[in-house]
Amino acid sequence: MKKLMNAPADFVDEMLDGLTAAYPASFVRDGESRRVIRRAEGARQGKVGVVSGGGSGHLPLFTGYVGKGLLDSCSIGNVFEGPTVDSCIEAIKLADGGKGVLRLYGNYGGDRMNFDMAGEFLEDEIKTTTVLGTDDIASAGPNEMGKRRGVAGIIYAYKAAGAKAEDGASLEAVTEIAQRTVDATRTIGVALNPCLVPGAAQPSFTIGEDEIEMGMGIHGEPGIWRDKLKPADEVADEMVKRLLDDAPKGRGSRVSVLVNSLGATPLEELLIVYRRVASQLSAAGTQIVLPLVGHYATSMEMAGLSISLCFLDEEIEALLRKPAESPFWRVA
Amino acid sequence: MKKLMNAPADFVDEMLDGLTAAYPASFVRDGESRRVIRRAEGARQGKVGVVSGGGSGHLPLFTGYVGKGLLDSCSIGNVFEGPTVDSCIEAIKLADGGKGVLRLYGNYGGDRMNFDMAGEFLEDEIKTTTVLGTDDIASAGPNEMGKRRGVAGIIYAYKAAGAKAEDGASLEAVTEIAQRTVDATRTIGVALNPCLVPGAAQPSFTIGEDEIEMGMGIHGEPGIWRDKLKPADEVADEMVKRLLDDAPKGRGSRVSVLVNSLGATPLEELLIVYRRVASQLSAAGTQIVLPLVGHYATSMEMAGLSISLCFLDEEIEALLRKPAESPFWRVA
Q1: B106 and B121 in contact (C-beta within 8 Å)?
Q2: Is B97 inside any structural domain?
Q3: Is the ipTM of this complex over 0.90?
Q4: Which among A5, A212, A275 has the least Cβ separation from residue B272?
Q5: With contacts defined as CB-CB under 8 Å, which chain B residues touch A264?
Q6: Residue B277 and residue B168: Cα distance in Å, rounded?
Q7: Is A331 part of any domain?
Q8: Domain around B106
Q9: 8 Å CB contact of B278 and A22
Q10: Are residues B189 and B178 both part of a single domain?
Q11: Is B58 an annotated catalytic residue?
């Protein structure tokens, strides 16, 4: 594992400097902590704010989804570490347009603790609500949905909540659509090779030269099984079956599909898998709209991919179709 | 090296099936060879056609740049192999709108031979011209520009020629702007780890666990030097210096910069490098417009990146700024 970087301690700050240098019209670095990215145009008065945050190392997640019709701001931790309380406070303040702020982030202990403390700190000043991304079906069973981790599928909730907020909805309505979108989204991943946290002595996990692990988390959390590498179609079939078996009750027949590279896995392989996913979903009587294929939520150079299904209702689909201004939200 | 794929012999066809399934509004597979991707809406009568092609394994190059204001069609070879003569003939025919067709592709022997034969085969039927991508400054010296290979920088010529053709220009004018854009573009790459051609017994090259190679080609062609891995800033400084030392005479002060992942190198590292490139160019009195940072021309899971500079004149900049319809042409 090799990285093109300078001092490991500068990895995140130099990355953020690069992000704001490359996309000055989209992203501004702000806050005393310098660990907040907000929209270049600032919070809009009279609009509900939508804030996310999390550890670094997952670009374009989370920061890349700051933009009109998406997030207002994002607090940024070190690689694979939650953001500080201070940066969460700053992100919430910078997203505040006087109508309250939704905190929408992945279900990880450190992130939860710091966002909760930030909300408490601000409670006399800004009304906040919380929705947690819990889309990873491999991380806990269907009877323990609240224990599931948040992974790539959270971008659907960003998009739906961001569009709803842009439409002028109340904090309650934005919170409701975010929760409804999380509840309608399922993700599972497979890992083929690990990544390396900058400065760490060892990769995030070890795996045999001919092995694959189903259900591994984006920081290397243990999955469901590890076995010899299998043909892509066999892997895709199992992933789709697990996702459909776990689908919300009363779901409709329309879904958006996200086939997401964890990092090193190239577009060629994503497309080979997408082809099979599309054919399996079609055979199951499910219609794909708004497919997403590419790098949406990564673990740096980890090899593998995740598949997310967002089961659409009329409102979620309409919100996903609305325009959004981020270089990283891209629908085919 | 592990791949999520099925039979190696099906890699390219399954990838193309995935591409057209994911982006049906953009890409259609066509030709008896089934190895042509053309615009969904077909060739426009009265417009000059712009055709490219090459080996697979470089997505989104070449196929992903088919779209309005870019390429009309693309012939597709096996991984790292040139497209067949038949697929080149079909691609040219499918791009023909009665005003002639520009063949615009990278300077590699196999691609050249087959595109030349296709042009000869069609010479009584369709007027064609040729422009070769020759942006890789590490592949031959400044006195042998014609021997240089084409790499990521060719996308600037796609964009300029495609926009000019869309404006209704003649074949001569489209050819001239393509050549002028190639002449204004310089690229250099660094490789950290190899990729694996599907079905091959060994990776495309071997490199030590702590080594980097400057100037390596996108198929693993030997570079300028190999050494211990260095800090990103040091690597970026050398790359920028080499690019500026090789800049066209009489260049202006405005450039577009492309920091392109060869595959496994994540966005975090691209941004760290971009930050340094931007600061070095600024120190050299050069103004960056239209920066591109991401996966634009890859070698599957190869680790490393390339930096391209396109030295702008007024017309090239105006053409780069025109809208283009491809899911993969993205300006910050």
Answers
A1: no
A2: yes
A3: yes
A4: A5
A5: 263-264, 301, 303
A6: 36
A7: no
A8: 10-183
A9: yes
A10: no
A11: yes
Give yes or no: residues B127 and B48 share one domain: yes
Tokens of B221: 């062609």
Task: For residues B18 and A291, give the distance between their C-alpha atoms in angstroms, rounded to a whole number.
Answer: 11
Does B303 contact A301 at a Cβ distance shorter than 8 Å? yes
> For this structure, is A219 an active site residue?
yes
How close does chain A come to B41, measured CA to CA in Å? 16
Pair (B160, B198) in one structural domain: no
User: Strand (E) positions, chain A?
Assistant: 27-30, 36-39, 49-56, 73-79, 101-106, 128-133, 185-193, 211-214, 225-228, 254-261, 287-288, 292-294, 303-311
When divided into structural domains, chain B yields a total of 2
Between CA A195 and CA A206 the distance in angstroms is: 10
Among residues B65, B138, B127, the alpha carbon closest in space to that of B99 is found at B127
List of chain B residues whose C-beta atoms are within 8 Å of the C-beta of residue A262: none
Q: How far B328 CA lies from chain A's nearest CA (Å)?
A: 9
Closest partner residue to B231 (CB to CB) among A6, A190, A298 is A6
Query: Would you say residue A328 lies in a domain?
Result: no
Domain boundary at A165, A182, A199, which?
A182
Asked if B84 and B41 touch (Cβ cutoff 8 Å), the reply is no
Considering only CB atoms, which chain A residues are within 8 Å of B190?
A: 4
Are B109 and B221 spatial neighbours (Cβ–Cβ below 8 Å)?
no
In a domain, A63, yes or no: yes
What string of pLDDT tens digits covers the 332 residues of chain A?
A: 899 999 999 999 999 999 999 999 999 999 998 999 999 999 999 999 999 999 999 999 999 999 999 999 999 999 999 999 999 999 999 999 999 999 999 999 999 999 999 999 999 999 999 999 999 999 999 999 999 999 999 999 999 999 999 999 999 999 999 999 999 999 999 999 999 999 999 998 999 999 999 999 999 999 999 999 999 999 999 999 999 999 999 999 999 999 999 999 999 999 999 999 999 999 999 999 999 999 999 999 999 999 999 999 999 999 999 999 999 998 76
CA-based nearest residue in chain A for residue B266: A300
Residues of chain A positioned with their CB less than 8 A from the CB of B327: 330, 332
Cα dihedral across residues A11, A16, A21, A23: positive or negative: positive
